[in-house]
Here is the input.
Amino acid sequence: MKVMIMGMDGYLGWPLSMYLSGRGHDVCGVDNMSRRKNVVEIGSWSATPIKPIKRRLEAYKEATGKDLTFYRGDLVEPSFVDVVVEKEKPDCIVHLGEIPSAPYSMIDVEHCNYTHVNNVIGHNNILFAIKDHVPNCHLLKLGTMGEYGTPNIDIAEGFFEVDYRGRKDKLPFPRQPGSWYHLTKVHDTWNLMFANKIWGIRATDVMQGVVHGVMTDDMVNDDLLTRFDFDEVWGTAINRFCAQAVVGHELTPYGKGGQTRGYLALRDSMQCFKIAIENPPDEREYRVFNQYDELYSVNDLAKYVSKVAEEYGLEGKIWNIENPRVEAEEHYYNPDMEHLPNLGFKPTYTLEKELHITLPKLMEYKDRIEAKRDSINPKIKWTA
Amino acid sequence: MKVMIMGMDGYLGWPLSMYLSGRGHDVCGVDNMSRRKNVVEIGSWSATPIKPIKRRLEAYKEATGKDLTFYRGDLVEPSFVDVVVEKEKPDCIVHLGEIPSAPYSMIDVEHCNYTHVNNVIGHNNILFAIKDHVPNCHLLKLGTMGEYGTPNIDIAEGFFEVDYRGRKDKLPFPRQPGSWYHLTKVHDTWNLMFANKIWGIRATDVMQGVVHGVMTDDMVNDDLLTRFDFDEVWGTAINRFCAQAVVGHELTPYGKGGQTRGYLALRDSMQCFKIAIENPPDEREYRVFNQYDELYSVNDLAKYVSKVAEEYGLEGKIWNIENPRVEAEEHYYNPDMEHLPNLGFKPTYTLEKELHITLPKLMEYKDRIEAKRDSINPKIKWTA
Here is the structure.
């Protein structure tokens, strides 16, 4: 299958390109390299020393004999998107080419707007290019479980049956996102649902949980590593805790630490994408996949990191700090997750198992984390 | 009260500026004049010969002795918005400064993206300016009843109580908008709800029905008229039918004509805004007003226009044509509307009564409609 990966140079895009290529798919991709620039902007870098895209592609060819086709360009440019989609005529587009940071979007009006334009306009351009050139293409769009927020009822998988004042309807499950970034993902979701309605674009809308881990089996040497961000802006809570453990800093959950989310190992994220790609939606179908494996609170994450860190001789003291975000720190959380298991998804790596791979790998690059340790503590606040 | 009207030169912005000024408020406003340009772009113009903004302001001063302060500038520029809000320090901002056309947004990717950036980024800039300079300012933001779409259950006023699998929550009512334009309004709604949550911006989010009519009592001479669009892109169904009746063209409802929506006379829209402004939300409150008076199907509109047109010697044959849109042509529609009546709103003009003012006024400008009569028939299609 010809698969085009938007955001090929990213944390997920790079390992997914190798994963799909290694499993018989013809993979091409697009990136504007903005993630590298945006991490430098806030004074940090990836703990893993990632190679320039050119070297990545060469190293993959050396290791496997396989070619990955790469286009450098910006999804915000409609003509660029139009041209690459028309040229490659993919059977499936995996759209990972968005700015994925809540704190980055919260810095100021410029970062809020940049995230909006990059994510929403880039996605619009993909929708129009599919409509114009590959109307039967399957769009696998990356959303986030964070779109739903933390309602006091079960979270359905995209749609729910509503019984209201004696009448019934099946409606989109309400979204209550918690940052400008999360809002842009919600905007994309509604735009995709509409494009499906009017043009029949077949789509899988993936509400993914937080992905953890840094290694996949395709990373046979360090030239093939993916990025691992650990700063307050680009690092997830797990990544920050791992980095803190490696450099001997206390692990710092925000607030009470009861914020509960869905988590998924990097390898299992790859597995989920592959299942969705190889089992595309029907013609004109729009489907939503909630994509996660385990539920943890932020305090749980800290405890697991602390426990595994001690096995490697690291100290992992936990020190809850003031929460820079506006979010519920204790809440109900029970999202459905049936569509992917029904297609055969079986998780293979728990958080604890994955940490036994991630932590020793990060210890190899302790000096890189140490050099940017100041970037871990939160400075960006949600309140006025 | 100091009121700042974003979109002062528009169909609603201009009469609202006069209406509020005449009732003791200190009114300033902003416009980038894009509506005039965008109507010319698609080959049409306002049936009423509207004056340049400079002349409008002079004519209002001549008629009333009152000054309106005007800033020409683009809400998409964050620094401009920041400066005018800081300078004027309004007690209330009425945000009408958005591109309001569904068909315009459906022309192609450029018009879709232009509508997105203009509406969403302009609104974001207002939110940040309020947060930074007038945190207690009341933002009265214009949304649309079209955000809700046509669900098979009653439409709540912003939020609804959900009972799902034995648990309860009060959640944002799901939106199912029917064009890129309507989607941008939904995006704004979620963004405003979030700004309220994190910064406590006090806000009235107005889900307004379709406004009809062209005259208010402040229009004491024709230099003070507001615009009246009648083409397929900028004209509502009522406006198109009125224009068709005036030039002897069949009235052309789209499809079966069972599409039902909420409608409101221009004068009553002014009344609603005034009530909301003079009864602001509490500190940190976010409230939603469904703002309409009567429910009509498109066929009902055609029948009323036809009936009133005949009283003025016009023929108003009805000829349902192929629907260029993707929308339900027969559906349940029962939106709540309690918040404004609870604050004292009493509608004063039915559709039929308003048509007795609108049609004779348009007959004065029959030649202007005749000159652009080709712009009425639909060419922009929703499908691929």
Remarks:
- The CA atoms of residues 117 and 186 of chain A lie 13 Å apart.
